[in-house]
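Extended Data, record YbjN domain-containing protein
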Amino acid sequence: MPEAPDTGVAEPTANPTANPSAGPTPDPTAALDHLTTLLDQAGAEWEPGGREGEVVVTLPGDKKLKTVASLVVSERGLSVSAFVVRNPDENHAAVYRFLLRRNLRLPGLGYAIDGAGDVYVVGQQPLAAITEQGVDQLLGTLLDAADAPFNELLALGFLESMKREWAWRIARGESTRNLEAFRDLLSGVENDPRYAPTGPGPGAAQ
């Protein structure tokens, strides 16, 4: 179950001088009920989360098998987070540069890292955004942000691990199906002595 990473941004506080004519604050309980109703209507796979006001949504992916997202409804609004990839093994600067450039194309969302360096996509929406169109757009954007760049992130941040796994699988006649998307990068490394298998076999960095 995903947990929102620490982005280093201070939590908003109540403003005692807020305009009283702005209208009543939306009820978080009603907003949560509305959110789960919309998820049911959309046929989304979800379950209650471990935190107050949280639902955990599982979205089927293309590059990743699935993306698990945490949606939390509170008086402050609707916060969302989804795990993208673990802390890269290498090329951190290139990975972060790639993510920052993609941030420019993410309406209402952005990439962040937690204390362990794992990458998440996070965002905050007003409760008024919990509409059929708003939730559909949010989940679509969230899935695209977590799923679409997955192979590029693996190639940037885990290439050495994948080379070792490829060489290990080739040497033992094992299937390389889980690495087929990277064949152009990996084919031939089995002949490189630097990647000669020496142990029980590395796991894929996914």
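Summary. The chain has two domains: 25-155, 159-195.
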